[in-house]
Amino acid sequence: MKTSAYAATDANTPLQPFSFERRELRHNDVAIDILYSGVCHTDLHMARNDWGFSIYPLVPGHEIVGRVSAVGGSVTGFKVGDNVAVGTIIDSCMECEQCRRNEEQMCYKGVTITYNGQDRVTGDVTYGGYSNHIIVREEFVLRMPEGLDMARAAPLLCAGITTYSPLRTWNVGPGSRVGVIGLGGLGHLAVKFASALGANTTVLTRSEGKIDTARELGADRVLLSTSAEQMESAAFGFDVIIDTVPYEHDLSPYLGLLDVDGTLVIAGSLVDTPKFNNMPLILGRRRIAGTPSGGIRETQEMLDFCARKNILPECEMIAIQDIGTAFERLERGDVRYRFVIDMASLPAA
Q1: Residues 9 and 148 in one domain
Q2: What is the pLDDT of residues 94-144, one digit of tens each?
Q3: Where are the beta strands (DSSP E) in the chain?
Q4: Any domain includes 300
Q5: Cβ–Cβ < 8 Å for 84, 127
Q6: Are residues 108 and 208 part of one domain?
Q7: In this structure, what CATH number is given to the domain that contains residue 205?
Q8: Do 58 and 78 sit in the same domain of this protein?
Q9: Segment 238-296, tens digit of pLDDT
Q10: Buried b (16+ CB within 10 A) or exposed e, 39-63
Q11: Which of 19, 20, 157, 328 could form a disulfide with 87 if both were Cys (CB 3.0 to 4.6 A apart)?
Q12: What is the pLDDT of residues 311-321, one digit of tens each?
């Protein structure tokens, strides 16, 4: 299938129009016309090869919302015209213990990521959602619930599940005390989810200017991490803290805020962590944990939860031709809180 896209051709050149052939539909595949594609900070890192494993040409995009255009002969769960979504992974071995537990993102044999990955059958490099079509194995296609605004839903497929999953993993619910460090693309969704799950939710921020916004998003209170008095008063005050800060930072100030057996969860920040004082971990039997995205079943659960609770990201819609400017603004934090590309702006191949 001839496909139109925007791609990075190297680490230093802005994304530009690119055409390629999508693979043929297999018996267990779903073909999707892409309507909206979220802009994730990962897209920026990958386009610039910040992590050292980008393969060019690179077509970013792993927050995808679209409509089924064709299905393979063995597909039973979807039909032409269905509204669907695709997230960060599009295949796994489906045989290992993790896959059998519906934790495909933890596949022992390695997942196939939506872009810059490797097709498990052909070995070809995968291309993502900054394009007008995609073909995905049925088991990795998600159903878009009725009532969920498709134009705003795309960031749920990465930012959403990356913050929803740890809240579910650590059994957050009514009575839980949750802290959220950072109020960006991930952080604002973590606040919405924790609040909707019934937790007492606190935003930890260095900026007094975010106090009103945090409360509008559902936070019960705001803790200024620059205030020694406020930080001291919050000691032992949290069961779970979700750390969404995307750059290198010291974890030490936050460890004493955890109650005994509390957990600080690093949500998707692939950066070096400076040395920290481990005494609070030992004395409080606290832990630091990491979390990637979630499995397919949990991602579907999240989408259904969002539809019931009317939870959506705060988005700014852009045309694909503005992706260069969007990347620049994303790098300096000038977006509240996620960009979404209207793929109708992409000319046909």
Answers
A1: yes
A2: 999 999 999 999 999 999 999 999 999 999 999 999 999 999 999 999 999
A3: 2-7, 16-21, 29-39, 64-71, 83-86, 89-91, 112-113, 133-137, 142-143, 177-181, 200-205, 221-224, 238-243, 258-267, 287-291, 315-319, 338-342
A4: no
A5: no
A6: no
A7: 3.40.50.720
A8: yes
A9: 999 999 988 888 899 999 999 999 999 999 666 777 788 889 899 999 999 999 999 99
A10: bbbbbbebbbbeeeebeebbbbbbb
A11: 157
A12: 999 999 999 99
* Residue 214 dihedral angles phi and psi, to the nearest 5°: -60, -40
Instruction: Say yes or no to pLDDT of 341 above 80.
Output: yes
12, 147: one domain = yes
- What domain range includes position 197? 160-291
Over residues 217-226, the mean pLDDT reads 95
Beta-sheet pairing, 200-205 with 112-113: unpaired
Is 306 a member of any domain? no
- β-pairing verdict for 287-291 and 258-267: parallel
Structure tokens at 233: 């008063």
How far apart, in whole angstroms, are the C-alpha atoms of residue 303 and residue 269? Answer: 23
Strand 2-7 relative to strand 16-21, pairing = antiparallel
Same domain, 227 and 280: yes
Looking at the fold, whether 209 and 126 belong to one and the same domain comes out as: no
Q: pTM to 2 decimals?
A: 0.95
Q: How far apart are CA 41 and CA 47, in angstroms?
A: 10
* Structure token pair of residue 25: 């539909």
The string of DSSP letters for 214-268 reads HHHTT-SEEEETT-HHHHHHTTT-EEEEEE---S----HHHHTTEEEEEEEEEES
Query: Rounded to the nearest 5°, which phi and psi values hold at 288?
Result: -110, 130
Same domain, 135 and 29: yes
9 and 147 inside one domain: yes
φ, ψ at 256 (rounded to 5°): -70, -10
Whether residue 297 lies inside any domain: the answer is no
Distance CA 161, CA 295 (A): 9
In sequence order, what are the residues at sequence separation of 6 or more whose Cβ sits closer than 8 angstroms to the Cβ of residue 47?
8, 11, 15, 54, 58, 60, 327
Enter the tokens of residue 182.
Answer: 């950072």
